[in-house]
Amino acid sequence: MRLKKYTDYALRVLIIAASKSAGELTSIKEIAETFEISTEHVRKIVHQLNKLEYIHTIRGRNGGIQLAQSPEQICVGQVVREMENDFVLMECFDAEGNQCVLLPKCKLKHALNKALQAFLHVLDDYTLADLIVNKQDLRALLALE
Amino acid sequence: MRLKKYTDYALRVLIIAASKSAGELTSIKEIAETFEISTEHVRKIVHQLNKLEYIHTIRGRNGGIQLAQSPEQICVGQVVREMENDFVLMECFDAEGNQCVLLPKCKLKHALNKALQAFLHVLDDYTLADLIVNKQDLRALLALE
Questions:
Q1: Which residues contact A2 (CB under 8 A, 6 or more apart)?
Q2: Closest-CA residue in chain A for B117?
Q3: How far is CA B132 from its chain centroid?
Q4: Closest residue of B to A89, CA-based?
Q5: Rounded to an integer, what distance in angstroms lies between the CA atom of residue B42 and that of residue A69?
Q6: Residues of A in Cβ contact (< 8 Å) with B105
Q7: Do the chains contact at A132 and B107, CB–CB below 8 Å?
Q8: pLDDT for position B108
Q9: What are the pLDDT digits (tens) for B51-97?
């Protein structure tokens, strides 16, 4: 079972932005270098996080990226829902791609759906603030200190 | 979020085997044709399900595949655990492949792990018997009637 890399990186972008001190900005370049991923990949994720109003980007020479909401307001479950967006756990979750003959009467899909809801429900109990309670440790790892 | 196709098909093999009447066997050919997948793929899955003692295969002309346990004894959560086997939800779940600098102090992995346990816990409440309560409907879809 895997989440998309996109979701993984989106959460990391939020963690890095939340690990900053007041007024401190991050940047696509910093994120890409920190996690050793392409700037193009980061750019797409930042674009979506911006569209979803989790972050805003400040243009110009001293520009950069910062959170658009307080970490307490950003629900991890919600971010995962928005970044994953499809949750095709198995073929039968894909309305267009399903070829399984059992679908009309299958009880497995219902069980998997219940399991998925339990998964997301746990993440709904976490905000971004919970992920940076040890902010100083994270800042040290991110070499921000 | 996706489960492996391998897990999807393994559960379908168990459902088809459980949908048979006493003494009725299924076969790699029947499974492959029913789900429109390659016999090679089915063969691998059947081999593993056999190794795990969920099914046994009877050789010979009138041979085939049948459940090795009663459907009530086969836990869906356990099958998913065994077929998925790695659960690399994100990069940090992959001991060898992780490159994320945050890992030593990250709280996200803990949250995701808790969510994963909740997911599996729901599936632990289901046995194969729960997936075939409407066995006659499934038999009709499988054209066994």
A1: B1, B2, B88, B89, B90
A2: A119
A3: 14
A4: B2
A5: 49
A6: 134, 137-138, 141
A7: yes
A8: 94
A9: 999 999 999 888 899 999 999 999 999 999 999 978 889 888 888 88
Q: What is the mean pLDDT of residues B3-32?
A: 94
ipTM: 0.92
> Beta-carbon neighbour count of residue B45 at 10 Å?
24
Residue B111's CB is within 10 A of a number of other CB atoms, namely 20
CB interface of B with A, residues 74-103, below 8 Å: 76, 84, 87-91, 99-102
In this model, does residue A1 exceed pLDDT 90? no
Please give the Cα distance from A29 to A64 (Å, whole number).
10
- To the question of domain B5-141 being in CATH 2.130.10.10, the answer is no
The string of pLDDT tens digits covering residues A99-131 is 888 888 899 999 999 999 999 999 999 999 999
In degrees, to the nearest 5, what angle opens at C-alpha A139 toward C-alphas B107 and A20? Answer: 100
Q: Reduced to 3 states, what is the DSSP secondary structure of residue A136?
A: helix
Q: Is B131 at the interface with chain A, CB within 8 A?
A: yes
Chain B contact for A133 (CB, 8 A cutoff): yes
Residue B105, pLDDT above cutoff 90: no
